[in-house]
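Batch manifest, entry 17 of 40.
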Amino acid sequence: MSDFIKSPLNYIGGKYKILPQIFPIFPKDVTRFIDLFAGGANVGINSNADTVVLNDNLVYLIEMYEIIVKMSEKAILDHIQSIISEYNLSLTNTDGYNLFRNHYNATHNPIDLLILTFFSFNHQIRFNNSHQFNTPFGKNRSKYNESIKKNLIRFLNALHSKNIEFQKQEFDMFDFSRLTSNDFVYCDPPYLITVGSYNDGKRGFTGWGEQQEKKLLAILDELNSQNIRFALSNVITHKGEKNNLLENWISRNDYVVHDIDNNYSNSNYHTSIRTKGTTQEVLITNYTEQPKNIKR
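Output type: structure tokens
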């Protein structure tokens, strides 16, 4: 695991813990690596493709990435310490957190979103329909510590050293027309048969339901017809439910299913994943090769 960069965002559904399982399945010699639902960017940031595209419809998240890639490490760390001191942010200071959250909602300073996530409940990013950040304080649970600082520094080094493009498109508005067979699309969408704060449609951004799932699967079929490789993270079963839409799509197209040994500790929508046998998480690909020399 030490070979992989961990995002400083403890993002719900983040794939850091399964990177050793999915990267060996990814193709090598990729010109463009498209992380279509980037979120905390645990997957995209670890790719060594010539160009990495981080896309997410959560515009404030992408704007945060766009800002920190332009700032020096010292400027970012100094700003974090300045805000923590100004608002006396800690494990227990609810009032300080709420004051800072109000400040962010008034200014929408992109880098302040990063700091909010350090102290928010379960490190979640959630907005209301007015695009006001509304995640409550993570009292006695969330904080900025040396581990997060270390992850942040490694993440910043990768952002500054790689050729990364940022886009803030809905997945079905992304321009796939420029892609070739040398490119690769990774998709980690909200899971249809789970419920998370990012896919309930109550945060002022598009939620996730059958309509969105069908659109994505149709896009992947189109990529397949153009010999563009893709990988899709998803779950087939969860808490007694089955994603029949996904299962039928796999069977109809004869795509390859790779079982994933999942273990999530920070995800409230994965509550039962810790109980063996309740969830079948998979990586679905339209190719079969598993290269030995991985170009991450």
